[in-house]
Amino acid sequence: MTSSHDKYSLFQAKIDLTATLRWADRLGFTEGICNHFSMLVPGTTDRFLLNPQGIHWSELKASDLLIVNPEGHVLEGKHQIEPTALFIHSRIHLNRPSAKCILHTHMPYATALTCLAGGRLEWCSQSALRYYGRVAYDETFNGLALDVAEGDRMCARLGDCDILFLANHGVIVVGDDLACAFDDLYYLERVCQLQVLAHSTGLPLKIISEEVCQATFEQIKDSREQSYLFLEAIKRILTRESPEFLE
User: Fold this and answer.
1) CA pair distance 67, 48, nearest whole angstrom
2) How do residues 176-218 score in pLDDT, each as one tens digit?
3) How many distinct helices (H) and strands (E) make up the chain?
């Protein structure tokens, strides 16, 4: 039996996930109707919320979200699963229990780095240092993620990191909390944009020393309040401007 508290938690989780998807579209992180965000259903380890196939992020409502199990069965929802979403998200949720939410996009500046030979996130800006020691790279583009083996391969490349740059493809951000993971996704694109702009001048990057990188990372890593305040601000704006997302 599902308690009223569990129902409220699920309803709130749907609102929060829908809000991040809608906001990601406003930020230009979308690519057609592709890309996907997932989040474990509160209180469970064997099912997750996922945005469905065919619904643009700008029109998504909380009621459109699917509840899916790792085998790909839709337990709740009226839409279909996008095939690559299943194999990417289910395998990471299964093999990385701490990854309560998984955000995958082809956002342009981060993806641009994946298209460069030896492309790396450089420690040349303050905001970049929130990712110090948290980034992994998949150097091999292996086609679409359309089977368990490819999902497991991506998960293995992610390892214990929170950010995975997928060669010639896009990025994956994982986290134990949606607000913090979305904040990481937002700043990742900003950091990559800044790096691409700095590179475009033709001048060398001013790389920050490892000692200062580590010290600054320590200052940033436990500052989660900003992430929660950001998500609350997003929901206030969407409630005012696009209240149908709550439906």
Assistant:
1) 5
2) 999 999 999 999 999 999 999 999 999 999 999 999 999 999 9
3) 7, 8
Q: Does residue 187 or residue 223 have the better pLDDT?
A: 187
Domain 4-242 belongs in CATH node 1.10.260.40? no
- The single-letter DSSP state of residue 51 is P
- CA of 208: how far to CAs of 106, 118, 127, 211, 217, in Å? 27, 19, 12, 8, 12
- pTM (two decimals): 0.95
Domain boundaries, the chain: 4-242
Euclidean distance between CA atoms 52 and 36, whole angstroms:
8
Given strand 36-40, what is the order of strands in its sheet?
Answer: 74-76, 66-68, 48-50, 36-40, 101-105, 170-175, 163-166, 135-138
State the pLDDT at residue 4: 56
User: What is the C-alpha to C-alpha distance for residues 201 and 195, in angstroms, rounded to an integer?
Assistant: 10
Tokens describing residue 4: 């009223």
Residue spans of beta strands (DSSP E) within 4-60: 36-40, 48-50
CA–CA gap between residue 139 and residue 118 (Å, rounded): 8
